[in-house]
Predict the structure.
Amino acid sequence: MNYRAVETTEEYVARLETGADWRAEIESLADAVEAEAGWFTALGAVQDAELWFYDQDTCEYAPIEFDEPLEVAACVGNVSWLDDERFAHTHAVLSDDEGRTYAGHLNEATVWAGEVHLRVFEESLEREYDESTELDLWL
Amino acid sequence: MNYRAVETTEEYVARLETGADWRAEIESLADAVEAEAGWFTALGAVQDAELWFYDQDTCEYAPIEFDEPLEVAACVGNVSWLDDERFAHTHAVLSDDEGRTYAGHLNEATVWAGEVHLRVFEESLEREYDESTELDLWL
Amino acid sequence: MNYRAVETTEEYVARLETGADWRAEIESLADAVEAEAGWFTALGAVQDAELWFYDQDTCEYAPIEFDEPLEVAACVGNVSWLDDERFAHTHAVLSDDEGRTYAGHLNEATVWAGEVHLRVFEESLEREYDESTELDLWL
């Protein structure tokens, strides 16, 4: 296990814009406050969603699409640098009108309402290619 | 996107009381420490639960009831003012004895065991009616 | 409800080791930084998993096993002392290649990739037997 001490220098709460993209909104927040790295949790609802599942054999992501309103029951993620841009690595648990649940890596989703808590770290985190998983990881 | 810098002035861990209501317990904690606003994550188990799903067409919540013991696999939420009372906006992911999962906006649930981390912000957050979603939102 | 003010003295981000055990990795981190108590959220993916469901009638845990790759869509937990060892009480929401979701108390899981944020508290938390739930709880 690799770990690093970090220091939270700033914290923000944000309300994501109805009709915007969930992940892009978090990246916009990170850009606006010039975060070198950060960690967030969030909740809310979306109008549609595209989750990604990572196939550990082929080492490729496969999309799973939902074209219906869903609650965002839980959302956990972090902000770091990927190819010189801030990337919000975002996982989410979504639920429908019967409480049925769908989850995974959140690529995109149209915000209905979203509430986010972001802590910004003094340290910078940068993703680099990891040979064993073929993922871009930090540390 | 609307955002605001916040400062965490106090942090608490709490053990929710067996037999009490999950959300009311978090609101009691917020009242006890006189939180103007806050953010929490939690885990545990409940004896029953009422989730709410927000219908984005009719703009009304519909309840989904569970009368069985469930784990609280993840719980994310925040505390803010709503109609002059502290309101714990609480989303949760619940699971049963086969690992099947149910999630949404948690209205009420009878605590079996609950562990909460609450950060209290110096700033106050107040919910007000939002015309586009017909929800009470802050910022 | 029982609660206690805590103070975060240190924070860490960690990348869990591919092939190691998810919960043991978090406990190794807690050992390495000599945490008396802490709180974490995490996300990632695992190669298999064993969830536990607590039967509130018999007061025993029953295992639910998954022998397939799964995303860790959300993970919330805390570190405290249990029988003189650091124990990472870990709940997780897992998801498969169709977005289907499984959740509960995470006993063990083989890490594919894992990203954790751990806050370390100055105060110590210790679990003790609770008669009404037959669980080991703190506070």
Observations:
- The domain at 15-124 of chain C is CATH 3.30.1330.80 (60s Ribosomal Protein L30; Chain: A;).
- The longest strand of chain C covers residues 101-121.
- Chain C has one domain: 15-124.
- The helical segments of chain C are 22-32.
